[in-house]
Request: fold
Amino acid sequence: MKKVIYPGTFDPIHNGHVDIATRASRLFDVLIFAVADNPNKEPLFTVEERMDLIRRSTQHIPNVQVKSTRGLVVDFAREETAIALIRGLRHVSDFEFEFQMAMMNYHLNPSITTILMMPDEKYIHLNSTVVKDVAKLKGDVSDYVPTVVLEYLKSKFE
Ligand code: ADP
Reply:
């Protein structure tokens, strides 16, 4: 069983995340979303809401699991017996941070391999903050988030 984890805040999940998860799920037996439960970040959605949205947005991917974590990503990966972790890469500007984090994670646990994946180019400018900012001002984000997320955003900002 080759397992990979996909860590992040997912506040909320959007189509860039779904694109990466769909691609990564084809390369591994199991893909586990590791949803960061970090109260300091003050997310819009609770960790339970974020997990629920991920589950409902990835129903087309059979080998997905959704869990939350408060600790180090590499410790979570070890507990789950995962061999790799996936991170998305949008712009060159993402690279420096991701590279630094990958090096630290190798230091902490050399047996977990970091894989950086590019999304479809239509999602290259997308992040959760942009989605929330536009939705808050009643802009149309229907091309960028799953329907279930669209409904949640509408109810949050009503
Ligand atoms: P963000 O607010 O940037 O979406 P997350 O912590 O939720 O942050 O992201 C989780 C992972 O998904 C990160 O590896 C991030 O690089 C990746 N990711 C976020 N948005 C995209 C996107 N549009 N395309 C590909 N990967 C993405």
About this structure: Residues 8-10, 16-17, 20, 87-88, 90, 94, 119, 123, 126-129 surround adenosine-5'-diphosphate (CB under 6 Å). The helical segments are 15-25, 47-57, 73-79, 92-108, 128-136, 147-157. The beta strands are 3-8, 30-36, 64-69, 84-88, 113-117. The two ends are 44 Å apart (CA to CA).
